[in-house]
Specification:
InterPro entries: MoaB/Mog-like_dom_sf (IPR036425), MoaB/Mog_dom (IPR001453), MoCF_biosynth_CS (IPR008284), MoeA-like (IPR038987), MoeA_C_domain_IV (IPR005111), MoeA_C_domain_IV_sf (IPR036688), MoeA_linker/N (IPR005110), MoeA_linker/N_sf (IPR036135). By secondary structure, the protein is of the alpha+beta class. 18% of the residues lie in helices and 31% in strands. The protein has 4 domains: 159 residues, Molybdenum Cofactor Biosythetic Enzyme, Chain A (3-Layer(aba) Sandwich), CATH 3.40.980; 55 residues, Alpha-Beta Complex (Molybdopterin biosynthesis moea protein, domain 2); 85 residues, Molybdopterin biosynthesis moea protein, domain 3 (Molybdopterin biosynthesis moeA protein, domain 3, Beta Complex), CATH 2.170.190.11; 69 residues, Beta-clip (Beta Barrel). Helix 3 packs parallel to helix 6 and helix 4 packs across helix 5. The structure holds ligand LQZAQKY5 and molybdate ion (MOO).
């Protein structure tokens, strides 16, 4: 049996960073850059107005009410910059080319137009006001985004603006999902005594899809060693990470541990001093990782969030591996025997966190409405309202 921290360290230490692959920018949301991207040109690439108004020479404005002669119009998309002489103003719009000679743009709200003249009701006018100079955002050749950047909608937009069409990103892991348990029914089967509808696959597939992982092969095995070994072998052919659900405890029909040994994996740890999810097993074979998740649904999901997710994120090149963690005051008291660290399904309410009713590992009702997990080490087995607790935010 290992501690929660030891288990996390071992998982991270054994998770490999996967190779890179080229993706179209449009398909790269949620991937992590595997190499630096340098700016192919300066941005802006020409002097742009940041306001609708008038391009002027700032030293022409000697007092509020200075009168200039209107001498042309520069509209966004025009490709030739107009020229401007002292004493003149050019009508200009946001995003349009600023004449080379212009040193500022006056917002139209600070002007008045009368018979071909523009009165400037602003003084003094600082040089460069409302002009986006060439390269103000980024200069040609400078680091646009370093390798390791998570591609968000903002990064996709930034790269598209620099006409980047393809990016080298870390590939996402392929997942093999093994469901075990002779009690499991598929939707469509009639509900009969002794049976339950299998739900861990839907839950884990949903959790994986939140990370953009969709290459998932699902297999079922009967509660016997041969069937479990055969399923594990099949799943190992093409997948990087195998998640087995159920059959990892000490019962006579729990074959996942034996099957993992049989297919030649090396066990890294079995059993974590935690509730729920004590019988978690983690093993590896070459670069492939194997998690045997306890079958109880809440145990499976806690183990997924606390151990599997960080491993997957490392494989995808991410730097932020664990769920975001913060300290919050707890709203209600909670006490436990202090034998194993506890992970509690919880809900954030304002600036407090509420441990939900129904913490048993078979029950998902609390998880269904949870937006966080409270982590209580054995040293903190009695909390009272207002005590600070460690809160792990679920991804939304
Ligand atoms: N004598 C002991 N018994 C148990 C121990 C122990 O230390 N000594 N540990 C308990 C703990 S803690 C857990 S957690 C469970 C883990 O058991 P398994 O991983 O072997 O899981 P199963 O027995 O196959 O199933 C447990 C429970 O979950 C339901 N289940 C399984 N798969 C699914 C699924 N895909 N969808 C929905 N529900 C599923 C299953 O029907 C069981 O009710 O062991 C304790 N026992
Ligand atoms: O560890 Mo089990 O997940 O408590 O029921």
């Amino acid at each position: 049996m290992v501690s929660v921290n030891e288990a996390k360290e071992k998982v991270i230490a054994n998770a490999p960073v996967l190779s890179g692959e080229v993706k179209k920018l449009a398909d790269a949301l949620g991937y992590v850059l595997a190499e630096d991207i340098l700016a192919p040109f300066s941005q802006p690439s020409f002097r742009q107005s940041s306001m609708d108004g008038y391009a002027i020479i700032h030293s022409d404005i000697l007092h509020s009410g200075t009168e200039l002669t209107l001498s042309g119009e520069s509209k966004a998309g025009q490709t030739v910059a107009l020229s401007l002489q002292s004493g003149q103003a050019i009508r200009i719009f946001t995003g349009a080319m600023v004449p080379d000679e212009a040193t500022a743009v006056i917002m139209q709200e600070h002007t008045e137009v009368k018979e071909g003249k523009v009165l400037i009701h602003e003084f003094p006018v600082p040089e460069g006001k409302n002009v986006r100079e060439i390269g103000k955002q980024i200069k040609k050749g400078a680091m646009a985004l370093p390798g390791g950047t998570y591609l968000s909608p903002g990064s996709i937009g930034f790269l598209q603006g620099m006409a980047v069409t393809e990016v080298n990103v870390y590939r996402k892991p392929k997942i093999g999902l093994l469901l075990t348990g002779d009690e499991l029914l598929k939707i469509g089967d009639p509900l009969t005594p002794g049976k339950i509808y299998e739900s861990n696959s839907a839950m884990l597939i949903a959790a994986l899809s939140q990370e953009g992982i969709t290459d998932i092969e699902v297999t079922y095995a009967a509660d016997d060693l041969d069937s479990t070994v055969a399923a594990l072998k099949d799943l190992t052919v093409k997948n990087d990470v195998i998640l087995a659900s159920g059959g990892i405890s000490v019962g006579d029909y729990d074959f996942v541990g034996a099957a993992l040994k049989e297919v030649g994996t090396e066990q890294v740890f079995y059993k974590v001093k935690q509730k729920p999810g004590k019988p978690l097993m983690f093993a590896k074979k070459e670069e492939k990782l194997f998690f045997a998740l306890p079958g109880n649904p809440a145990s499976s999901l806690v183990c997924y969030y606390e151990y599997v997710l960080p491993a997957l994120r490392k494989m995808m090149g991410r730097n932020d591996l664990f769920l975001k963690s913060l300290q919050m005051p707890v709203k209600y008291p909670y006490a436990f025997d202090g034998q194993r660290d506890e992970f509690l399904k919880a809900m954030i309410a304002g600036d407090e966190v509420i441990p939900l009713d129904g913490q048993e590992s078979f029950a998902l009702r609390s998880f269904a409405v949870a937006d966080a997990i409270i982590y209580l080490p054995t040293t903190q087995n009695k909390v009272k309202p207002g005590d600070l607790v460690e809160v792990h935010l679920l991804p939304f």
